[in-house]
Design a protein that fits this description.
This protein is of the alpha/beta class and about 775 residues long. The protein is built from 17 helices and 36 strands. The structure holds acetamide.
Amino acid sequence: MVNKKIAALHMNNISLRRIWGVVIACFFIISSYAQSSVIPQPNSLQLRDGYFTFTPTTAFLATDMQSFQDAITARDMFLFCRTGLAMKTLKKPLPYTPYIEIRNDSAQAIAGAYSIDILPEKIIVTGYGTGGAFYGLMTLMQMIENPFSGVYRIPCGHVEDQPRFDYRGMHLDCSRHFFEVDFVKKYIDYLALYKMNTFHWHLTDDQGWRIEIKKYPKLTTMGAWRAGTMTGHYRDQTYDTIPYGGYYTQEQIKEVVQYAAMRHITIIPEIEMPGHCLAALAAYPEFGCKDTTYSTAMGWGVFPDIFCPKEETFTFLENILDEVMALFPGAYIHIGGDEVEKTAWKESAFCQQLIKEKQLGDENGLQSYFIKRISAYVNSKGKHIIGWDEILDGGIAPDATIMSWRGEEGGIAAAKAEHHAIMTPGDFCYFDHYQGDPLFEPLAIGGYIPLEKVYFYDPIPLALKADAAQYILGAQANMWTEYITTPEQVEYMLFPRLMALSEVDWSKKENKNYDDFLRRVQVHMRMLDKMGTNYAKTIFRPAYSILPTTDHTGVLLQITAGVNAKDVLWFMSGTGSKEYKYSEPILIRDDENIKMQDPATGTYVTADIHFNKATGKQISLQPDPSKKYTADGPFTLVNGISATTKPNWSSKQWLGFSGTDCEMIIDLGKTDTVHSVTIGYLEDKLSWIWRPAAFSVELSNDGTSYATAGEAQIPPDDPASLRNTTIHFAPTATQFVRIHIQYFGKIPAGNPGAEKPAWLFLDEIMVE
Ligand code: ACM
């Protein structure tokens, strides 16, 4: 944190200089530099009067081997970030200043820790453990000011810093879509810039095997290729017929490992087993459970084709792991273990015999046996496995580290059992999820994880006491690429959320401040502009809520967010193109299409409001919706805005109920004649959301005695009733409308979530 007193002094000084600056240069925007804009927020950053100013001879001074390496890498990073500085490195002090001395003082061995002293004549960056000096140089780079053309300087001061967590991870799926070595290196540069220290490289899956294995060449000659790729969203089930593939040679892998190591990033390769292995089975069908051939998957999802736990299969996998372990010097190998659909094992006489023979109980026991064997093999080579949290099922392998993705529960269970865990829960850390309203975002798998949600994630769950909490190594975000096809789109999904993740993993909780973070993010966006990085501008998009008016005639549109919310301009379709600067909630009494735009980025959102007799009226609802899907509360159902389903639904607009009917009463405010009620709902069976089974409408004039006006069954497989259903009845004078909606019931067998209660998702209720 900036020491307030020193920062205040610094500010006064700047005010004087600003006047001088105006005299000598028209372009002098020093005020924005009065605070530092380092991300992740350092533990302590104190600025003092004065500057270290770069001259043409300013160089790094590095007198030990590690410092020399850090200097070389820092030079590359300075160029990567378009600082305009091409730094030379000296191995011996020369008689000129100023210079930047890099020291690695490993005596204290605090991983990642560093300090920086910035004086007018020199800067000393000292690393106190692995990566420390390099991180100091990344901080220093982010402190460089460039107030006049060709002038580079850093305010004098002192920085003390060390990471909150030892594991700071970012993942990239190179199976669903393949990314060339050059982009993988760029991705690693991005991670290094934000002090991440682990790159989880997802190298094998159903849709492509991406790592050369010399002993099994077909893994890449066949398994790296598929005949086509799913287009659009999964629910559309459409494919192209363009052959797609690619893989990394062992030479390329070594090059990337070395490149990452220079940036103090360890690579954890993931070799998926016993599921998500269709590409391997396409090449070597003999290691599956069925006497058949397989094809590399063209679409997404979970496939029933998995490795069969035969001795030959273990030999095959151990041989693969031998080559993998020789390429990746890190301590961990990720062996997947997630989403194993075990029907093939259920139907295999061999597997059933093995379960009996080894007294494994069932297929979960067999999965546990499988993982334990692989784990023991990896241990015998001096390394450790990481697996997704499903490897807890049936008993965890001794020594295994859990990657908790289906929520935090896996990580909590692992930590309580004294196993290390890495937190990567789907609701906070899946960067393939939308970061804004799907209407305005490129197609993604689903979900909704805006920047703020990532920022406020705490890897230590409340449920863990300190003794168990020490087993949480840190957090990681995952970049699954089913819907991410190009490097530019990876960047879009990565930025700015990577910056938030870096503060989750690095910064002390008490030093985090979202408003200040947003200020710093905008400084970094200017750097990303220079770098040509395709970051998302979603945070600038205005967000709005629709509120009731006190007399329940009309609705109020309130702009609630967007980084420049106070500057938003709005336009109303009905009143020509006149634009207004937003100052207070906008009263709307008729159908309107309102566009709200951030003037700085042009990012906008529209609200399409349609009135019916229920719009803006008082509504009560029983029971409360699920905490996860409350949108703007019950009023959401009568706010005039119909929730969207295309291109994807977003939890912002739907009220969700898990396994329960619901009932609402709408008070029309006075007696009115009505003849129909329409309910809007969602069906997304993949997400366990089913249309309601039935609903009924009752009418009342006094709010006490109700008479039934109509009932409707909603057939489960009628496409015509996918979105909404209407009950018509004879025109009736009424004030109160009571609607009972019956949820679907248990999810039928053969569907995702079978036997579990279905979710009910509702949006607009329309009374005519
Ligand atoms: C996962 O997302 N299947 C780990």
